[in-house]
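Sharing a chain and its predicted structure for anyone who wants a worked example. Both blocks are below, sequence first, tokens second.
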Amino acid sequence: MTRLAFSILLCLLCLSCITDDAPTGNVYVQVGDRLPAFTVELTDGSTFDSSASGGSVTFIMFFDTTCPDCRATLPRVQQVYEAYRDRGVRFALISRAEGAADVAAYWAQEGLTLPYYADGTRTLYDLFADATIPRIYIADSQGAVCYMHTDNPLPTADILSDELSALLEQ
């Protein structure tokens, strides 16, 4: 009985970030595509306009603070943010469907400083895909998606740093 309970728990944990997604698993923005146009105000007071890159590399991450894979990825992204925020990389983290209060509480608890937008309606996420978080898009200075990551496998800070460095060197 204990072995069965453990197996069920393990399966639920592995599926925890995707079970509430649409079953189709459509991805609307792939590597090589341009970022969809949207504008949001981030928590640092800046306006993030995906179509106005201004010659900057862009890093977008969709997350949910209750997702174990997102929780594992956020500290890695924080590390990358600290290394690249002053090197011409624009960062925008967007909650997939959480409200501002929940995200702010998690940010405070974890000591995160990444600028984010709490999209409680899931509107922005649905421009990109209808399944799987975390979802990271890294676009070049022209707004073309060069790298995309999800939860399989979770990207390391080194991988994300290498990708950003490669785009900054172009």
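Comments welcome. The chain has a mean pLDDT of 86.
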